Structure formats: structure tokens, C-alpha cells
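ok trying this again, last paste got cut off
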Amino acid sequence: MVGQPKKKDPPLSLVPIIAPTPFSSQFTLPIWYICSPMALYCRKRLELFGISTFFGLAVSAVVFQYYGNEISSNFDMPALHKYLILFLILAYLVPTLVFHLALYSLNALLVRSFGKVELNEQRHAILGKLLIASISKQVVDANPSDLVEEVAWISLKKYWRPK
């Protein structure tokens, strides 16, 4: 109609891409609407550390619950007996370290595949900083504030070198 304002389309983040069907169960509908706005990758190191700590300590707890005696007997040598508790604590933290390394690598892949827009914005800003720094003969510190910026710095490493 003439003179009537057009209705604005809702933002894309609010529109489900693949909506559940009317035949979905009562359990999938709440999960769909709760999980659809969730991020597909971690932006902060603390988020990634929290997830890896949760999974690593859960795996360690289960392993130490069932195989604790076998693990402690592996380190029960006379020369190392007074350091037994230290070795057990380190063995308890190994799954956390493994989960952190695996999730960090997976997060970098997720940023490259699902965060392309934000990654390109970060790359553009970094290239601008590097251009200004090269013109004015200044040094730019590569001190990323989040994991997306860290992936952007790593992807542009052919344009800069560490001091």
C-alpha cells in the first residue's frame, strides 16, 4: 500500500534456519530454542579453559576412581616414593592438558569456518595497524585480546615477524 511503512525483517540471528517441525518431541523444542543462539566457538581463553578443565577433570575422576591403585603403583618406586603425591597430581592433570590442546585446535578450526565475518574484520584491522606501523616505522605488539584475534594474527603471520 502507498504511504504504509514497510515491515522490517527480523534479524537473521533470530530467524531459525532449520526450524523444528510440528512433530518434534517436547524435549527437542526447548533444546532447539535454547541452543540455537549459542556460539559455535569460544572467544575468550577463560571459556575454553573452563570447558577443557570440566572435561579433563571429569575424565580424571572416572579414571582415578576405577584405576587409582594401578596408577599409584606405577609411580611407587623407592627413589620416587616421597614425590608420589606430586606425580599423582600431575597424572590427574594430564587429561585436562590434552583436552585443552585438542579444544584449542578445534576452536581455531571453528573460528575459521563459522566466524569468517568476524575473522575478516579482525584481519582488516590488523592489516591497517601493520600498514600504519610500516609507514611510520613503529613497532606493533601482537597482543591479541581474544581467540578470534589470535587466529587472525596467526593467519597473517607472513606479513609480520616476531621481534
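PB: full thing came through this time. Residues 12-16 have pLDDT under 50 and may be disordered.
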